[in-house]
Amino acid sequence: MFEIEVEGEARQEHIGMRLALNCPPPCIVYLEGDLGAGKTTLARGFLRGLGYRGRVKSPTYTLLEPYGLEGLSCYHFDLYRLTDPEELEYLGIEDLMTSDAILLIEWPEHGAGVVPAADIKVRISHRGRGRDLLFSAGSEQGDKILQGLRKTLEKV
User: Residue 46: in which H helix or E strand, if any?
Assistant: First the structure.
């Protein structure tokens, strides 16, 4: 587990890019934090790190945005408006967890009992004009990812 302070949207996207570079599929990343904390900003950077160049929007109303990338699939969930975790089964969340998939899940607590366990959790908190990002691992793979991320961030 480690924490970093971030100032500005561009820096938060950069951290997301660095996370993606250390995050091989299959992987599940929880993005936690209050409204406006920057979960989608981090997800945008993550997708940029995977090579996606299109528009990245919050799937607040659709619950899910799929991104087909070369050699892998990335699924961005926003469960804020989820009324019942069982709805995720209708979306086929279990079918999306393939060997080439990465799931980015905002508001994972709204899918409790159905959402798969996280490899990485990123808790984003407001800090004045900036943000605090707390990274923690939920699996052995998550530990390896965080070790790589920490080394990558030290170089920058």
Answer: helix 39-49
Q: Is 117 buried (19+), middle (13-18) or exposed (0-12) by CB count in 10 A? A: exposed
**Structure-block tokens of residue 88:** 């995720």
74-116: pLDDT as tens digits: 999 999 999 899 888 888 888 888 899 999 999 999 999 999 9
CA distances from 122 to 10, 32, 108, 138 (A): 17, 6, 11, 11
> What's the alpha-carbon Rg for the chain, to the nearest Å?
14
Round to whole Å and give the CA distance between 100 and 111.
22
Q: Render pLDDT for 9-48 as a digit per residue (tens, 0 to 9).
A: 999 999 999 999 999 999 999 999 999 899 999 999 999 9
Per-residue CA distances from 141 to 19, 54, 60, 62 (Å): 13, 29, 28, 29
* H helix and E strand count, the chain: 5, 7
Domain layout of the chain by residue ranges:
2-154
Query: What pLDDT does 129 receive?
Result: 83
CATH topology of domain 2-154: Rossmann fold (3.40.50)
Q: Give per-residue pLDDT as tens, 6-19.
A: 999 999 999 999 99
